[in-house]
Amino acid sequence: MSVSFKYLPVRARLEPSYMFLSSLNIPWSTETLDWKEFAEQKRTVLPFGGQLPLMNLSIPPNSTPISTTQSKNILKTLRDVYQPQELPARITTDEHVDAADDLSIITRLMNFPQTHGSGAAIPNQLRSFKPYLKFLNHVSLEDTPFLKSDTITIADYAFFHIVDCHETVEPGVLKASPNVIAWQDRVRATSGVGDYLNGRVPLGMLGEHTLPNAK
Fold first, then answer.
1. What is the 3-state secondary structure (H, E, C) of 147-166?
2. Would you state the pLDDT for residue 182?
3. pLDDT tens-digit map of 144-165
4. Residues of CATH 3.40.30.10 domain(s) within the chain?
5. C-beta atoms surrounding 53 within 10 Å
6. Cα 48–53–119 angle (5° rounding)?
7. What torsion, rounded to 10 degrees, do the Cα atoms 121, 130, 176, 94 define?
8. CA atoms within a 13 Å half-sphere pointing along the CA-CB vector of 157
C-alpha cells in the first residue's frame, strides 16, 4: 500500500491523519501546493471545485489509487484500511471525529490570525469550544484513558488537533480541564506520535507567512 496527499502550506486538517499514520509507522508523502499552484489546479485538476486535502491510496492488487477528499473522510478511510473497528466502538469513535470537525474553523484562525482572526472571531470560537471541552473532560475521559476507549483511536487524533489549535490561540484555555491535559500527554506518548509532533514545521513558516503578499 502507499499513501500520498496533496495540500496547502498550513498546519491544519491533515494533522490527525498524519498522527494516525505515524502511530502505525506507515510512511506517506505530501505534495504541498503554493497558492498560485492551488489557484491553477483548482480550476482544472482538483475534484469538487478544488477541495483539499486530497488523498490517493493505493491498495494492491488494484492498480488504480483510491482518491478521496474531506479531512474527516480521509481519516475514517485510513482507519477502515489499517485499523478497522467493530460496532459499537466505531459509532462512538465517529461521533467524536464528527464533533471535532464541527470546530475545524479554528485551523483557519490559527494559520491566518491577521486575515481571519481579528475582531470577535477568536473569542466567538472559544465560546463555541468550551462546551466541547467540558464534555471531553467530564464525560469522554471520565473513566477511560482515551476518548471513550481504553486504547487510542482516530477520535483522539481528531480532537487532539482541535484542542492543540485552541491552546495555540488561547494559552491557558485548558487550565480547568485536568483530564484533557493528562490525555494530551498520553496521546503525545503514543509510539511515533511524539516524534511526528516534535518534527513539524513551525507555524511561523506556514499559513499567513506563505501568502504572496506576506512580509
1. CCECCCCHHHHHHHHHHHHH
2. 98
3. 999 999 999 999 999 999 999 9
4. 2-83+201-210
5. 19
6. 95
7. -120
8. 31
pTM above 0.90, yes or no: yes
Sign of CA dihedral 17, 200, 207, 107: positive
- All CATH 1.20.1050.10 domain ranges of the chain, comma separated, are 89-195
C-alpha cell at 65: 489509487
Q: How many residues are there in the chain?
A: 215
Distance in angstroms (rounded) separating the CA atoms of residues 111 and 109: 6
pLDDT digits (tens, 9 = 90+) for 70-103: 999 999 999 999 999 999 999 999 999 999 999 9
Which triple of cell numbers denotes residue 214?
506576506
What pLDDT does 18 receive?
Answer: 98
Residues 92, 94: Cα–Cα separation, whole Å: 6
> Are the C-beta atoms of 153 and 183 separated by less than 8 Å?
no
How many Å from the N-terminal Cα to the C-terminal Cα in the chain? 41
- Number of helices (H), then strands (E), belonging to the chain: the values are 10, 4
Which is nearest to 17 in space by CA: 101, 89, 79, 67?
79
Fold for domain 89-195?
Glutathione S-transferase Yfyf (Class Pi); Chain A, domain 2 (1.20.1050)
